[in-house]
Each structure stands twice: as structure tokens, then as C-alpha cells.
Amino acid sequence: MKKKGLSELVEVLLQEVAEFKNIDKDVVLDSLKDALSSAARRYLQLQNRVDVDIDVETGEVSVFLRVEVVDDYPEYDLDMSAEEVAELDEGYMLVQNAQRFNENAQHGDFLEMEIPIANFGRQAIQTAKQFLIQRVKEAERAQIYESYKNKVGMLITGTVMRTEKRAHYVSIGPNVEGVLLESGQIRKEKLKRGSPVKAIIESVNEASRAGSQIVLSRTSGKFLEELFRQEVPEIAEGTVEIKGTARDPGFRAKIAVLSRDSRIDPVGACVGMRGMRVQSIVRELSNERIDIVHWSEELPTYIRRALSPANVSRIFDVEGVQRSVVVVSDADLAQTIGRNGQNVRLASNLLGRTIDVFGESDWAEKTEEEKQIIIQPRSEDLRKEQKEAGKSLKELFDEENTSTSKTDELDGIEAMVQAGEDAAVEQDLEDADEMVPLDRENLEN
Questions:
Q1: Sequence-separated (6 or more) residues with CB below 8 Å from residue 228
Q2: Closest by alpha carbon to 374, among 325, 304, 425, 414?
Q3: How far apart are alpha carbons 8 and 126 in whole angstroms?
Q4: 313 and 402 fall within a common domain
Q5: Same domain, yes or no: 14 and 69
Q6: Phi-psi map region of 341: left, alpha, beta (phi>0 left; psi -120 to 50 alpha)
Q7: Last residue of some domain: 261, 295, 329?
Q8: Domain ranges, residue 208
Q9: Which of 156, 182, 309, 445 is deepest in the core (most CB within 10 A)?
């Protein structure tokens, strides 16, 4: 058969996969062979192996049944799996079945017959079509995974193609779509069909039968990093290093930077001439306010910079855990905490430790005993350390010599901490509902 004379089945199958333009031709060809083989088995109502030959130059297609005729299936090694046994059985046909095609077939004969694909029937055609589409889609998914699995964290620019159930589907390449889930969207921005959009590739799923394999994000700290890397040449070149980020997407963010060249100010490099560099990023993030922090290996210095422009007067490091207590001027207290605790929460995330903030007058009114309780490890601190270190709460208390192994003593410490917190002077700030964590200097008023 010449290509123009192919059966309706082959024509239909080739049309069905025409949209998968990026799939390797050999993959499509192998999938077509498997689809025709599946259709032939359905047509014959047998599970035997069917061979399909396709001449890619002439378009000639041949479908053959090639089996060995047997009285009974042979016995196989007991170690073989059911799948391996089934595959071997495909090469054999029982005598009674073989005589359907050749009445003289006997045990030991080899039966070979060509199957006219034009006779497969509508149901067999539908089965072959579904099989082929499934195989080609699987190949497409595998190809996308191989192409994008090493691009996680990469900044991409795409176009919004459609929106379904609050998820935006974004074209990021020829026949490649990424999905921007609600969790990856900046809350106050609205993306419409045809809108250009930047995002990072957050994850790539190897097997995803529904939806997109590639998950995008505009809310992660990595997205902020990549925007700065794109906008600031010193970061792209490695002269300025990003040490950490913290975000409340669409509202406020903090990014810590360090210069590897003493002649270059890392903060100034990120801000740019007349603020042009950072303003470009702010616009991309729907006017998200960005605090650029000069990173320091000295924790007290880093804490002060993370809370800037607040006037931090004292810092107490809570020994053995990732928490610090900070005392600031009363005038700076509201600004330090921020609206709904936003500023101190972002600073905590940037620093990787909890920060508790007190005003000067509030701290001065506390007794020495109350101050000691505040700067001691709390039960929640120890639970956090326990989770990170895989240790029991009792072991952590023992290491700090703050309790014995008795359960009632642990309960007593927790109650004591709670009492200390309850004894803290009330703050007149509605935005300071939570106390947040920070380096010990001394306990003097």
C-alpha cells in the first residue's frame, strides 16, 4: 500500500497525533505500531503477539500474526513474574484457536498470517485511536519532564492561555504549558488571557495525567531572587550574593545581600541609579515593598539591619535555641512590629530565628525574674529544636541543665514560662498581637 492508499484507520490515527509536533518521529511510529497491534488483537479476539511493519518511505503497512501452535502452554521458571509469563505466552497459540485460521494447524506448526487492517472494524479503530493518543501523550510527558527537570528555580516568561478553577495555564514553550496555581499567584493582581507573565518553575512532575506537569510560582522567595539576578548585573556576575529572602507576596519583602568586593555597596547595587533597578522589580511584583538588607555574619548587626530603621537598644540571644529578644525605643515599637506583625515576622523569616520585640518602657518595668523567664528557652522553642534535631523534649532540657527527667518538672517549666508571658506588660498597639523573636548583651534596665 502506498501512503495515499492507507486505510481509514491509519489516516485517522495519524491525524490524531498531528498536534504533537515535538514528539520524536520514531516514538510516534512505535506508538502507531503498538496501536495497530492492539487493534488487531481486538479484531481477532486474541491476546497473541501481532507484528506490525511500516515502511516509512513508501507508507506500506503490514500486520502479521506470527505464533507457534501448541497443545498446551509450556511450563516456565517459577521465579518468573506474571508479566514475563504473559509476554512469553503471546508467542504461542493453542491448537483449537489456530484451527480458526488454518483448519490443518497442528502442535509444533508456526502460523503466520497477514491481517487486513481495513477489516478491523469501528470498535477496533476507536481502541487503536485511544491507545495511540495515550502512548503519544505519555511520550510527550516524558519528553517534557526530561527537558524541564533540571530547570526548577529558573525564571521564565510566558503567556496566559486560559484560566480554570482559579489556576492560570501559561504557555512557556512550543506545546508546553505551566500552571500557576492560586498558591503561586500574588493575591491582588489579576491576570487575563493573553497577559505576559513572569514566574519561576517551582516543580516538574514526572507523571501527571491531569493538568500541567510544570508548576509555576510568583510568590516564592526564589522568584524574588531571580528577578534581582535578572535586574542587577553584579548579582548575575557573582560580585553581590543573595543571602536570604522573606516575603508577604504583593505587600512586603526583605532580601539580604552581601558584596564580595569591598568597593561595591551591595544595597546600592540592588537599588540602582535613582532606584531604577529595584523599582522595576517592585512594579513586577504589583508594588510589593522591598527592604534590601546588608547581610552580616555578626548576628546582632544582622538583626539591627533586618529591623532597620528601628532604633534597637538591646539584643538578648536565647541560649541554645533560634530565638532572640529585642528591645527598641517606644517610638519605634509600632514600626518595628509592623502592621499585623508583618515587619518582625519577615525579619524573623529572613534571619531564620524567632524575634520577640519589647519597647523600652515595657522592658524597664519588668522585674529581673520576669526578664530571666523571657530570655530562657520556652517549651515551643524546645519543641522546634526537637523537630529539627530529632531529639526528645526531655533530652533538650537535660542538655541545657534546666530540668531533670521528670515529666512533672517539664510541665512546671512550661507553666512557669506561660506565667512569665502572662506577666508581660500589655502593649497599647493593636498590631502587636504576637510577640516575635532575638542576642544577649546584659539584663540591666
A1: 235, 242, 255, 270, 281
A2: 325
A3: 12
A4: yes
A5: yes
A6: left
A7: 295
A8: 152-219
A9: 156
Question: Which CATH number does the domain housing residue 339 bear?
Answer: 3.30.300.20
Range name among 43-57, 207-221, 298-312, 422-436 with the lowest pLDDT average: 422-436
Among 168, 191, 219, the domain-final residue is 219
Q: Which three cell numbers stand for residue 357?
A: 520585640
Whether residues 26 and 108 share a domain: the answer is yes
Query: Count of domains in the chain?
Result: 4
Nearest Cα to Cα of residue 110 among 70, 158, 157: 70
Residue pLDDT, tens place only, 98-143: 787 777 888 878 777 777 776 676 777 777 778 777 887 888 888 8
Looking at residue 140, what is its pLDDT?
Answer: 82
Do residue 69 and residue 203 come from a single domain?
no
Output the CA–CA distances (angstroms, integers) from residue 203 to 152, 198, 245, in the order listed. Answer: 6, 15, 19
pTM for this entry: 0.69
Annotate the chain with three-state secondary structure.
CCHHHCCHHHHHHHHHCCCCCCCCHHHHHHHHHHHHHHHHHHHHCCCCCEEEEECCCCCCEEEEEEEEEECCCCCCCCCCCHHHHHHHHCCEEEHHHHCCCCCCCCCCCEEEEECCHHHCCHHHHHHHHHHHHHHHHHHHHHHHHHHHHHHCCCEEEEEEEEEECCEEEEEEECCEEEEECHHHCCCCCCCCCCCEEEEEEEEECCCCCCCCCEEEECCCHHHHHHHHHHHCHHHHHCCEEEEEEEEECCCEEEEEEEECCCCCCHHHHHHCHHHHHHHHHHHHCCCCEEEEEECCCCHHHHHHHHHCCCCEEEEEECCCCCEEEEEECHHHHHHHHCHHHHHHHHHHHHHCCEEEEEEHHHHHCCCHHHHHHHCCCCHHHHHHHHHHHCCCHHHHHHHHCCCCCCHHHHHHHHHHHHHHHHCCCCCCCCCCCCCCCCCCCCCCC
406 pLDDT band (50/70/90 cuts)? very low
